[in-house]
Structures are given as C-alpha cells and as structure tokens.
From TrEMBL:
Its main location: membrane. Belongs to the binding-protein-dependent transport system permease family. It is a multi-pass membrane protein. The chain crosses the membrane at residues 21-42, 86-108, 120-140, 169-194, 215-240, 275-298. The keyword Transferase does not apply. GO terms for cellular component: plasma membrane. It comes from Paraburkholderia lacunae. Keywords: Cell membrane, Membrane, Transmembrane, Transmembrane helix, Transport. It comes from the Bacteria. Gene3D superfamilies: MetI-like (1.10.3720.10). This is Sugar ABC transporter permease. Pfam families: BPD_transp_1.
Length: 309
C-alpha cells in the first residue's frame, strides 16, 4: 500500500509556472472587468452597508441610525427561522450532492456501456432553471397529485408522503429537488478529476492485489481534493443564493416554515418596502459567507504554495 501511495504521488504533475509580466494590451483587456468589480460589486456592497446603518424605508435616506437595523433584524423571528432553515438545508444539500456525485462519477469511471448518454442524463437536470425544477417537484410531492396519490391508487391507502405541506419536513423537500438538480454538476467535476489520474496507479493496485474500493478510499478520493474543493464552493454559493426553488415550490410556506435568507431579503426589499432591514440582512449574509470561505481559500492557497516549494 505504501508503494501504491508513492506511485500516486509521482503521478501528480508538478510544474512551476514561470512568472512573466503582462503586456499593456492584456491590462487594457482586463480594464472593463476591473471597473465592473470596483463599481458594480464593491460599490454596491459599500452602498448597501451605508443603507443598513440608516432608517431607510421605501427609499434610501441619509440619516445615520447606527446598528439599529441589525438589532431589529436579530429580534425578528422570521429572520432567525430563515437562518435555521438555511443551515439545515446547506448541510443536507452539500453532503448529499457530494456523496451522490462521487458515486455517480465512480460508476461512470468504470467505462460503462452508453457512457456518453449516461453523462448527459445525469447532467441534464443542472441545465434546467431552479424555477422549472421547483414546479416539477411541487407536482411530484403534491399529496393530491404526486407520489402519495399514486400510492393510494395502488391500494396503499395508509401511505403518506406529504412533506411539502408539513412544517417540520418541508425544508427537506427542497433538499430533494435541488440535490436532484445539482448532483450531476458534482459528478462532472469529479469525473474530470478521476480521468486525470494516471493509469499506472491502477496497474500497480492490480499487481499488489489491493481491492478497488480501498484504492478509491485511500488513494483516489484524497487525490480529488482540488475537484472536491471546487464542487464545495459551487454548492455553497447555491446554498446562499437559494431563492427560486423555494418560491416555486412552497412560497416560503406552509406559513414561514421554509423561509430562507434570500427570500427574507427580497420580501422586505420589495414587498414590505423596508430597504434598511433588507440591507442589514444582506450584509449579515455577506459577512457570514466571507467568514466561511476566506479561511477555506487561505488554506487552499497555502497548500498550493507548499506543493510548489
């Protein structure tokens, strides 16, 4: 097994990029994107932070209210429920997508028949919009039309699958729908990583008589670190942006049982005309994302530097 790990380490390409100065034309080509980042992204963040420190309602106001909006925000039961829901949803969604995506990638990596067709089938849901996904799964999970109705017609009269109208289980129906949509993306990323592994590794494993599952668990999966990191970041962004699927499936209901931060922000920004509170919620969400992703990217960059040394 030690020899196999050594073989895997040798299989990793180690190339040190040569530093070079970008020509003026390259800087000019980058200028529009730089301006977009500075004014469209950073500028709007600063403006949102400024509004969150005011008593703005329908329109932005120039008064200064300190952290009053943040105090109101964390005394708002609907906001606290949305945070609880997004934590539950995020944990279930990311774990399920990573597990299913890895299993699908390993399955296709066995050079199965009709591999191209299977890749298309598994990846196709990701091409759909979250609104379309939400509507389809709303029909599937509707107790009067979907799975429960079919079971009742098959004489399973006591079968119940009414999670979408159950306040305690409704958030898990959104997990089911979005995992179905996003697992194919994880599969594609991890399959690309699997196809980049040197065939000599598998030859060495066969010679040593090591079971295939153990090679995957001990050697292959650790080598997929960069691909898994990319998949994690993309899934995390989907969690933070969760809005369309909730609106299409449940409208945040029953009641406010499936409320999420993005829907809270949109409702208070447009529906309740409370720009100050919506801006405060946006800044809290932004700070939370930065607090989670910054250490992640820092650790990843440090690991890359250690490899280059």
């Amino acid at each position: 097994m030690h020899a196999l790990k050594l073989q895997a380490a040798r299989a990793r390409p180690r190339q040190k990029p040569l530093p070079r100065r970008l020509p003026l034309a390259a800087w000019l080509a980058l200028l529009p994107m730089v301006l977009t980042v500075v004014f469209a992204y950073l500028g709007t963040m600063v403006w949102t932070a400024r509004v969150s420190l005011s008593n703005s309602r329908t329109f932005p106001s120039g008064d200064f209210a300190g952290f009053a909006q943040y105090a109101r925000l964390f005394h708002n039961d609907r906001w606290l429920l949305s945070l609880q829901n997004i934590v539950i949803y995020g944990a279930c969604f990311i774990v399920a997508c990573m597990a299913i995506g890895l299993l699908l990638a390993i399955f296709i990596d066995q050079r199965v028949v009709a591999e191209g067709a299977l890749r298309t089938v598994f990846l196709y849901p990701y091409a759909m919009s979250f609104v379309a996904t939400g509507l389809v799964w709303q029909w599937i999970l509707n107790p009067e039309l979907g799975v429960q109705a079919v079971l009742h017609k098959l004489d399973f009269e006591h079968a119940r699958f009414d999670w979408i109208v159950d306040q305690e289980w409704v958030i898990y129906t959104i997990v089911i729908a979005t995992v179905w949509q996003a697992s194919g993306l994880v599969m594609a990323l991890l399959l690309a990583g699997l196809r980049g592994i040197d065939d000599e590794l598998w030859k060495a494993a066969r010679i040593d008589g090591i079971p295939r599952w153990r090679v995957y668990a001990s050697i292959v999966v650790p080598m997929l670190g960069p691909s898994m990191s990319t998949a994690f970041v993309l899934l995390f962004v989907m969690v933070v942006k969760l809005y369309d699927a909730v609106v299409a499936m449940t409208q945040g209901g029953p009641g406010t049982a499936s409320e999420v931060p993005a829907k809270f922000i949109m409702d208070y920004l447009f529906g309740r005309a409370n720009i100050g509170l919506a801006s405060a919620a946006s800044i809290v969400l932004l700070v939370t994302v930065l607090a989670i992703l910054t250490p992640f990217f820092y650790a990843r960059s440090r690991a890359a530097l250690r490899k280059d040394v």
